[in-house]
Amino acid sequence: xxxxxxxxxxxxxxxxxxxxxxxxxxxxxxxxxxxxxxxxxxxxxxxxxxxxxxxxxxxxxxxxxxxxxxxxxxxxxxxxxxxxxxxxxxxxxxxxxxxxxxxxxxxxxxxxxxxxxxxxxxxxxxxxxxxxxxxxxxxxxxxxxxxxxxxxxxxxxxxxxxxxxxxxxxxxxxxxxxxxxxxxxxxxxxxxxxxxxxxxxxxxxxxxxxxxxxxxxxxxxxxxxxxxxxxxxxxxxxxxxxxxxxxxxxxxxxxxxxxxxxxxxxxxxxxxxxxxxxxxxxxxxxxxxxxxxxxxxxxxxxxxxxxxxxxxxxxxxxxxxxxxxxxxxxxxxxxxxxxxxxxxxxxxxxxxxxxxxxxxxxxxxxxxxxxxx
Length: 373
Ligand SMILES: C[S@@+](CC[C@H](N)C(=O)[O-])C[C@H]1O[C@@H](n2cnc3c(N)ncnc32)[C@H](O)[C@@H]1O
Ligand code: SF4
Prior knowledge:
By secondary structure, this protein is α/β, with parallel strands linked by helices. Helix content is about 40%, strand content about 20%.
């Protein structure tokens, strides 16, 4: 019998940014007037305490402060939130904060480190001044380097840089130069995302000219090689880690683990009494502040479980052990047949694990659609 207490991740959302980027469909709102830090902090603390009371025996293995721009908030807010989680927090918990260059340079990062944050995720996006301008970023390439140096000075030994490629008008050489600048800084982790045009964004309404498919393929091929040569292993579609420093919080999402979602628009997923329930908080900061305890619970239908599981697990380059499927979904592995066998026969999935092959990783959408009931 497994007597280990269940492990969960905690995601905390900070919904404001200095400015809204034209490609971004995250729940982020341009800051108008003063940041309502004390009010938002109190709301988060109420929300956290209510949600943790429902899972008081769970150990919090990872915490992710995401946004929006969490680094607009002071270290005190993070210290208070972590103090409230303390009774359930694992001693070696991974505690990440997303940090935007342009909001960090004049702040002592030591205070965040002292508050208990032990991993920073810096949103670089590009090092090319023209591309940064086109993306509507508020920072320069120098600001990224300064933020990174400040992080190291403050003692952060686990730092991620977010970069995007296939930017408007970007050439292969420019995309590779961006990656090289990031690699030169020596972060433990790199997230390298293809820019996508998301509905309800400025870029979607007025699409810029993006590189064609052939250029994107060339960028990916050269980028994968460069990252591998620099010692970064690709462990998820867009995530690369050196020396095994994967993002534990995200690995929990991808392996269909449980997590609590705190803050405006935050999503959670919890296994309760044989059911899997998704939770969602009010998206608008104003509504959230008005009722921080409001929450919508939606059980995942039994016939959607296998697909939801695979949507996440197949993003991991090594997928997951076959056993994880039964543990997380409560379904028999036979629920995935005959589609799994068909994918094996076509060379798109492995037979020893629930994982896509190298070829399969390129066609994940079509693999998943085969599993749709
Ligand atoms: C939660 S977001 C934003 C984090 C932080 N506020 C920032 O902008 O630096 C996390 C990452 O998603 C990526 N991202 C956002 N919008 C995207 C899009 N439309 N296509 C691809 N990647 C995107 C960016 O690399 C971004 O850093
Ligand atoms: S700073 Fe980040 S979260 Fe905010 S609008 Fe830009 S991409 Fe979105």
